[in-house]
């Protein structure tokens, strides 16, 4: 689990960020909040967060200076700047100070999670995660695949799958397609067809029973999908399989 510090002087923005991280409480824990740059530096030293969401425009010490001070003593801490101003100079300085990400307010949940995910991948170090767990896109995709592999026989929704990995449906849909080249729906269909092929060859069950066991809503839908992707109906393919076995 990643420990998160919110360095933000706007109450509404802090509340918005807390709500996002609460939705993904198995992945992130908000361990503290800072209302200005000096407070951020102090709390970073006391709380040792893995990730800091840092507002640029704060009193006492601005976000850039606070971020630089934190990086000097804790270089593996992921710091993502958060600002309402789309100014090139801020982005340039963020790179100069070797910070990890840059968000433009108001950022969507998907953008925030994607920025964190990208930063985690970029660090490439298990030291960033206190539990030394595998992290990153590959882990999320693997979790989605494992979930589908386990529950393909029942009716699956994107919302259910997203909830199982504690990310939003939009985020995992985009990530899964980017990493695998197929949609989650495509993967579900692939897994179901694979099991159906095995059952047609090895099980004496009727086609309707196989369709139900593999998660298809009804036999008509099963027949359509099966023929589209194999070129044969389930019965036609079963006959060919048995004919091959007898030769």
TrEMBL record:
What are the 4-aspartylphosphate sites (modified residues) in this protein? Answer: 55
Annotated Gene3D superfamilies = 3.40.50.2300, Homeodomain-like (1.10.10.60)
Annotated SUPFAM superfamilies: CheY-like (SSF52172), Homeodomain-like (SSF46689)
Where the record annotates domain Response regulatory, the positions are 3-120
- Keywords in alphabetical order, please: DNA-binding, Phosphoprotein, Transcription, Transcription regulation
Q: Where is the HTH araC/xylS-type domain?
A: 142-240
Q: Which InterPro entries match?
A: CheY-like_superfamily (IPR011006), Homeodomain-like_sf (IPR009057), HTH_AraC (IPR018060), Sig_transdc_resp-reg_receiver (IPR001789), Tscrpt_reg_AraC-type_HTH (IPR020449)
Query: Would you tell me the protein name for this molecule?
Result: Stage 0 sporulation protein A homolog
Organism in which the protein naturally occurs: Bariatricus massiliensis
């Amino acid at each position: 689990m990643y420990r998160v510090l919110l360095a933000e002087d706007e109450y509404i923005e802090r509340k918005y960020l807390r709500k996002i991280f609460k939705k993904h409480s198995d992945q992130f824990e908000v361990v503290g909040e800072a209302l200005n740059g000096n407070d951020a530096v102090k709390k970073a030293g006391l709380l040792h967060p893995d990730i800091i969401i840092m507002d640029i425009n704060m009193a006492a010490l601005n976000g850039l200076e606070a971020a630089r001070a934190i990086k000097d003593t804790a270089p593996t801490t992921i710091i993502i700047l958060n600002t309402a101003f789309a100014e090139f100079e801020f982005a340039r300085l963020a790179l100069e100070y070797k910070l990890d990400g840059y968000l433009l307010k108001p950022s969507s949940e998907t953008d925030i999670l994607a920025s964190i995910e990208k930063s985690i991948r970029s660090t490439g170090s298990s030291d960033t995660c206190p539990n030394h767990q595998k992290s990153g896109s590959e882990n999320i995709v693997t979790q989605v695949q494992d979930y589908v592999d386990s529950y393909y026989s029942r009716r699956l929704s994107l919302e259910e799958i997203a909830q199982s990995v504690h990310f939003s449906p939009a985020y995992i849909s985009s990530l899964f397609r980017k990493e695998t080249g197929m949609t989650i729906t495509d993967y579900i269909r692939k897994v179901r067809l694979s099991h159906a092929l095995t059952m047609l060859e090895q099980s004496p069950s009727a086609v309707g029973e196989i369709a139900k066991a593999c998660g298809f809503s009804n036999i008509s839908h099963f027949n359509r999908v099966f023929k589209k992707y194999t070129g044969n109906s389930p019965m036609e393919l079963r006959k060919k399989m048995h004919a091959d076995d007898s030769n």
